[in-house]
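PROTEIN DESIGN WORKSHEET
SECTION A - STRUCTURE
LENGTH: 212
TOKENS:
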């Protein structure tokens, strides 16, 4: 079956949002070299996503492509990142997810390595829990899953699927790699990403001080 055609005006609007956020995140040092990938669900059948191998601080509309939910390029000669499969996996798994952001900050990368053996980063008592959709109090714990890295996307997707069966808190870490965060739209996904970045930074500092 052919994938239905997409709305080009909708695509242009999604591309503009992706470009705006990626430039800000690149300026923060979250996308070294050409790292990271970012997407927005356009409709039930399509997602706009950054193409492979581009400096995320210098993107133009031509650097945003469209894939279907099987991760197949639509109406383009561009190649998606292999990790685009992790974006479409989330869109298929969670119908309410509207945007996925993947970054590689030093904090995220180090935390993924340090907590890889535990399979999670247990976050406790943070006021910033309230930045996560559905959380209303600091008096709780949130487990941010950590999955092992792999160049085999089927294997990596299976690891993510298993981790999310245990806990879905709007994000996960890939060990030594970075963070995936998502939300109903790109603004919510960005809020979740920023909240996880802050709390992971606090966890690393607490660990350095011997308090974790």
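SECTION B - SEQUENCE
RESIDUE ASSIGNMENT:
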């Amino acid at each position: 079956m052919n994938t239905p055609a997409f709305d080009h005006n909708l695509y242009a609007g999604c591309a503009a949002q992706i470009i705006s956020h990626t430039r800000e995140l690149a300026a923060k040092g979250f996308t070294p070299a050409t790292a990271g990938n970012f997407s927005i669900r356009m409709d039930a059948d399509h997602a706009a996503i950054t193409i492979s191998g581009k400096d995320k601080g210098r993107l133009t509309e031509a650097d945003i492509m469209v894939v279907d939910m099987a991760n197949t390029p639509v109406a383009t000669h561009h190649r998606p990142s292999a990790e685009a499969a992790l974006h479409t996996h989330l869109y298929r798994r969670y119908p309410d997810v509207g945007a996925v952001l993947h970054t590689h900050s030093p904090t995220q990368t180090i935390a993924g390595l340090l907590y890889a053996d535990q399979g999670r980063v247990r976050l406790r008592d943070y006021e910033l829990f309230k930045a996560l959709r559905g959380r209303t109090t600091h008096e709780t714990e949130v487990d941010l899953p950590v999955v092992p890295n792999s160049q085999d996307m089927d294997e990596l997707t299976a690891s993510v699927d298993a981790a999310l069966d245990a806990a879905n808190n709007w994000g996960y870490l890939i060990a030594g790699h970075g963070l995936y965060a998502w939300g109903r739209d790109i603004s919510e996904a960005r809020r979740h990403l920023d909240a996880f970045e802050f709390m992971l930074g606090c966890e690393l500092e607490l660990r350095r001080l011997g308090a974790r």
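SECTION C - NOTES
The two ends are 53 Å apart (CA to CA).
The CA atoms of residues 60 and 97 lie 24 Å apart.
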